[in-house]
Amino acid sequence: MVLFAASCFFYMYFIPKYILCLFFLILVDFFMAKKIHDQQNERKKKLLLLVSIVSNFGLLFYFKYLNFFIENANLVLLPIFNKEIGLSKEILPIGLSFHTFQSVSYIVDVYKRKIKPETHLGIYSTYVLFFPQMVAGPIERFSTLGAELKKTAKFSGHLLVKGLPLILTGFFYKMVIADNCGEYVNHTYTNIDSQNSYNVLIAVFLFSIQIYSDFFGYSLIAQGSARLFGIQLIDNFAFPFFSENIVSFWRKWHMSLTNWFRDYVYIPLGGNKKSHLRHYINILIVFALSGLWHGAGFNFIVWGLLHAVAYLAVTLFFIKHPIKIPVALKYLFTFALVSFIFVFFRNGKLSDSTIILSKIVSGNTHLLFKPISVFLLMNIGFVFVLELFARKYGNYTSFLENKNEFKKVLLYCYLFFGILTFSGIDNLPFIYFQF
């Protein structure tokens, strides 16, 4: 009950009335799951499942995608009828995409009889609302987070030792790395006409580091905050920039979303069990939907499709016919590829993305060059070395637990010192809050 009340307060701090939307979805899914479990008629079970899914995605469509469809419909209607449909003025409830996917995974798992429906409304409500991960993931399954919520946990110093180091590390990623990269990226993109080509190229690479540090930093803070309550969240990242190709990258980046699409879209479509053509089409569908999940815009769809093309290219050619090149070069190529595709993620319009790319290839080096801060480079290097060691343990939790006390103290002192000394000037919001 404490976690439920805290989660409600946390969510209502943004826009209080939107808590009613989540209460609505919680009640629909809670009672529909029971009815689905008790129903013997397969046709009626599917109908109940459809009601739940439509309720979840209907709300998401209204808040996130309605204006996108209205804007494109107006392009057709305005020339013909000389009238256009008015846009909705509603603001997207924070983290609604994460809530939707988490709720849908629960109802589908009950339908497939992978789990039994929860009989305690408070536990299910807290599963949907759990505040450490409610606004930006990871996307949890009820089989894992639900079990964690049912455990009896008492506050102790041991929980602090488990949670605070993850929170501290997450704040370092966010405030020292992501926010400082963001200042450079935002300045460059805002003043694109007056930018040296090298500045734009650097900004493209820094945005990849920014969005990773921003999202991974949040994930660490979420994990650490949950640990304070004796609850363990799943890992959402596995050091993705140490990836030899784009296939490996997507096994390590935003893993909870990747696994969701695998289990609830890719496999139901047939996965790789059907013809080769159908397999490739399934991959294209999954990445296109992944792009659309991130935002209502053609730029996000293009971002997803470009990843699909790169993914298929690696699957068809490079995995079957591997090229012997140093692993470090593979890491660099994957990072560069992901960074250029991220151009379409960063910009709101396709036209803006093409301007960025054309600015790079123009080779205009006559304008003023803006160097990167030495302190930012130093801290990026520090995080790189840190990840180089941490990835051998699989995640930061295991890495920190296996360090001796002296090394831990040194690490924590620098992280704390870095946050106090090198944090970005602008208080930039977490990037994934908009999804």
List segments where confidence is low: pLDDT < 50 over at least 5 consecutive residues.
none
Q: Please, what is the average pLDDT?
A: 92
What's the total number of strands? 0
Shape: globular
Distance between the termini: 27 Å
Structural class: mainly alpha
Order of helices and strands: HHHHHHHHHHHHHHHHH
What does this structure look like?
The protein is mostly helical and 435 residues long. It has 2 domains: 2-150, no CATH class; 158-245 and 319-434, no CATH class. The protein contains 17 helices and no strands. The chain is globular. The chain starts with a helix and ends in a 13-residue tail after the last helix. 38% of the residues are buried.
Brief descriptors of the model:
single chain, 435 residues, mainly alpha, 2 domains, 17 helices
Layout of secondary structure:
Blueprint (H helix, E strand, L loop, with lengths): L1 H11 L6 H20 L3 H40 L14 H16 L9 H9 L12 H9 L6 H34 L6 H31 L18 H7 L2 H12 L9 H19 L3 H21 L8 H20 L3 H12 L12 H17 L5 H6 L3 H18 L13
Helix pairs in contact: 1-5, 2-3, 2-4, 2-5, 3-4, 5-6, 7-8, 7-15, 7-17, 8-13, 8-14, 10-11, 11-12, 12-13, 13-14
Short précis:
By secondary structure, this protein is mostly helical.
